[in-house]
Amino acid sequence: MTPLQGQAAVDQLLEILDLKQVDAATFTGDSPQTGAQRVFGGQVAGQALVAAGRTVDPSRLVHSLHGYFVRPGDPTEPITFHVETIRDGRSFSVRRSTAKQHGKTIFFMSASFQVLEEGLDHHEPAPTGVPAPEDVPTMRDWVEKYPNRRTVFNASPQAVDVRYIGQPGWVPPGDRDADPKQRVWMRVDGKLPDDPLIHACALTYASDLSLLDAVLSYHGEVWGPGGVVGASLDHALWFHRTFRADEWFLYDSVSPSASRSRGLANGRMFTRDGRHIASAVQEGLLRRVGA
């Protein structure tokens, strides 16, 4: 069995993001059937942004979102998204998008959209001395090194090409070096439509793939038996500049704090030519588990 990958996996992701409209403010979406016990957080966040964005004038681009993961989602059941219009002003539109299953909220998000405007422009430089994505091991390379992970890898569609510059968080305990910085190259592994909302939703999806890993990286910890189990509690994203999610970007992440079974991670995303396109912040629940 080989995982769904490349354009086929991207097309499936696009189908997941293509919500069905029920009325002017209500949408429904499905999850891929991979055998997972709960819906991937980046998926429901991306879908919630799709729902919010479809109620906004397309000339207004999302510039920020703030979401809370309230309950685990059931991947075997559709998700209903209801969008509340908070405000439509001359420059900004604000929406609240709520995801529900079985009559209960599993996730809610506030998102803000802005008309294009010119103004002050600066950003801190991108990290230097970082190897190119072509020189970094792929996930398939890591699976070849740890074949016991092949079943899990093959069961999950690989719509995003993720390349860790260090070790990924799922290697066995003791195989990961402690590093206060985690850097990962990412791109959607196929062609996306030109719609900026789709690229923002795809980036939202990808932003949840590795951010909490930065907390574990600080301690050289790993996910699973002998390491840590966790779940996202909240997630925030700011979109600074135009980008394509199907082109390489560097996800430069650190963890400023971890305490009381919670870890905080910050991430900055840079294009290959060094443009700072987005920033993310996430807090997650992290609990140790025995071997």
Give a structural overview:
With 291 residues, the chain is of the alpha+beta class. It has a single domain, classed as Porin, CATH 2.40.160. It is built from six helices and twelve strands. It has a twelve-stranded antiparallel beta sheet. The longest helix has 13 residues, at 41-53. The two termini are 28 Å apart. The mean pLDDT is 95. This is Acyl-CoA thioesterase 2. Pfam families: 4HBT_3, Acyl_CoA_thio.
In whole angstroms, the N-to-C terminal distance is: 28 Å
Low-confidence parts: none
Helix content: 10-25%
Tell me the CATH topology.
Porin
CATH class: Mainly Beta
**Biggest sheet descriptor:** 12 strands, antiparallel
* Largest sheet strand order: 1-2-4-5-6-3-9-12-11-10-8-7
Q: Which structural class is indicated by helix and strand composition? A: alpha+beta
Q: What's the gyration radius in Å?
A: 18 Å
Catalytic activity: a fatty acyl-CoA + H2O = a fatty acid + CoA + H(+)
GO biological process, one term: fatty acid catabolic process
Subunit structure: Homotetramer.
Pfam family, one: 4HBT_3
